[in-house]
Each structure stands twice: as structure tokens, then as C-alpha cells.
Specification:
The chain is mostly helical. The protein has helices spanning about 20-25, 30-45, 55-60, 65-75, 105-110, 115-150, 155-160, 165, 190-200, 205-215, 215-225, 235-245, 255-280, and strands spanning about 80-85, 95-100.
Length: about 280
């Protein structure tokens, strides 16, 4: 018997990425879609993607906060697999992302959505469901605020995402609420810049609003600037732990580093503001 060995040395896949239709179907918007494509390009068919969220966001042409949110959705949708682990020689744990076998699900979906019309109707129905979910979320939030204003009851520590120990001995600062488009209304000047700085690093907007109003903005901006290149998965928790430390300390940051970081945040504000409006 003659054995034939075939070796592919064309390196074709170095020049393009195959994206299953399932990714398009389960993506909520172009941000989800492009982030998956960028991760697939880095990871390849059998590799891993362990790039920092900052660089991932740059390649995907979106903010770090949006990249983190999209990564979370893609993992929940089963389009990515990921775990956080610390590699030898690195001080912080990082996300390791891989592409699971999507072809059985992709085949099933493709057999259902054969025609262009069926795909258009699928996305139209998907958009309606998102709009309805957004409407219900807004109504619940309005009702919560209405009940709070009627009864004057402060939310519990757990509702705000803090334990009793975290809020003990902390002087609470009233920073107001939101306007109808979801953007902060009571933060101004450097406090507002501190808010956007925290969101830029992937911290939830509600948490960022509380922290930006609670702390000296110089403290917030200094820690954000000094930690901006830390590994992205643990970045939000790392920044918050530094801000909540007792007693608080301000890190040593070169003026050029701080100034450069502020400029990056200012440039990202329009994009962040647009995302916050979309999420309302």
C-alpha cells in the first residue's frame, strides 16, 4: 500500500477568518460580531487569545468597557470559552479565550435560515425582543426610583453592591440621579472625568457613578492612570480595591502619564456616552 502524506503549507488562514453564521445570529450588535472576529483571528482554530482588554478594544475599534461587555455576552451565548488564570511570570491573572466547536449549532441554524427573508425576519424579531427587554428594564428602574422618592428609603448595602463592612465609616455623598438618556447629571468637572475614566476601564456605570462621587477625583484618576495597563479581567476589581483601601493612598504617577491618560479618556467620552444611551 502506498501511503500519501498531505501537508498544507499555503498559510491561507493567515489572510482571512471564517465566521460561522451562528455568530451573526447571536450577536446583539456589530460590536459583538467584530469582537468575536478579532478574537478568532488571534486564537486561530486551536489556539488561545490572551491579549489585554485594552489592546483587544483597540483592535475591535471599541472602548474597553464595551469590549468587556461583549466578551461577557459571547461567553454566555456559548460563542467563546474563557477562563481567568495567572501565568508564570505575570503578576496578574488574565483571560484565556478559545473558540468552541460551533459547527453543529451553526448547521442547525443555517438549515432554518436558508433564505435572505428568513434572516431579515430573524433579526427583526431579535430587535423587537431587545427593545421590549429594554422597556421593561426602564419601567422597573422608574418604579424603583418612584418608590424611593415616596418613602424616602435608602437602598440597602446589598442593593448598591456593597457590604456593610465596605460602607462602614464612609461618608456618603449625594451625587444625584440620571437624566432620561442614561448619562450622569450631577457629576461635573473632574468628578465627571473620573466617572468616564472608571467606565473606560470597564467598571459598571452605576458603580462608577458612586465611586466618582465618593472619592477625590485626583485619587480616582491617579489610580486609573497607574493601573491602565494591568490585565483587563481583574482591572475593575483592582481599581476598586485601591479606591476603597483604608487609609486611601494616591500612587506616584508621572505627569506625562496622567496627562496622556486623561487625553485618552476625553477622546473616548463620545463613544462611552453613546453606549450608555444605547443601554438605557
Amino acid at each position: 500500500m502506498v501511503r500519501v502524506r498531505i501537508r498544507d503549507e499555503s498559510k491561507d488562514k493567515a489572510y482571512f477568518t471564517i465566521t460561522p453564521r451562528l455568530v451573526w445570529a447571536l450577536s446583539r450588535d456589530p460590536y459583538d460580531y467584530i469582537l468575536w472576529d478579532v478574537i478568532k483571528t488571534i486564537a486561530g482554530d486551536a489556539g488561545e487569545c490572551y491579549i489585554s482588554t485594552e489592546n483587544l478594544a483597540v483592535l475591535a475599534m471599541m472602548s474597553m468597557g464595551k469590549a468587556s461587555a461583549c466578551r461577557k455576552h459571547l461567553i454566555e451565548a456559548g460563542l467563546l470559552q474563557g477562563e481567568v488564570r495567572k501565568d508564570p511570570g505575570y503578576p496578574q491573572p488574565v483571560w484565556h479565550l478559545t473558540i468552541p466547536d460551533l459547527w453543529p449549532r451553526n448547521l442547525e441554524l443555517s438549515e432554518r435560515l436558508v433564505t435572505i427573508r428568513s434572516r431579515v425576519e430573524y433579526k427583526q424579531e431579535q430587535a423587537k425582543e431587545r427593545q421590549e427587554m429594554g422597556r421593561e428594564k426602564r419601567e422597573k428602574e422608574r418604579e424603583r426610583k418612584r418608590q424611593k422618592s415616596l418613602h424616602g428609603v435608602k437602598p440597602s448595602h446589598s442593593e448598591e453592591g456593597y457590604t456593610h463592612g465596605e460602607t462602614k465609616n464612609i461618608q456618603r455623598i449625594s451625587i444625584g440621579g440620571d437624566d432620561d438618556d442614561g448619562l450622569p447629571t450631577a457629576l461635573t468637572g473632574d468628578n465627571l472625568l473620573a466617572f468616564y475614566s472608571l467606565v473606560y476601564l470597564g467598571i459598571d456605570a452605576d458603580v462608577a457613578r458612586i465611586e466618582a462621587g465618593r472619592h477625590n477625583p485626583d485619587l480616582v484618576l491617579a489610580w486609573c492612570a497607574s493601573l491602565q495597563y494591568a490585565d483587563a479581567n481583574n482591572l475593575a476589581g483592582l481599581v476598586l480595591s485601591k479606591l476603597r483601601a483604608e487609609p486611601p493612598t494616591i500612587p506616584v504617577v508621572y505627569d506625562v502619564t496622567l496627562s496622556g491618560y486623561k487625553d485618552k479618556v476625553r477622546k473616548a467620552i463620545p463613544g462611552i456616552a453613546g453606549i450608555l444611551r444605547e443601554d438605557v
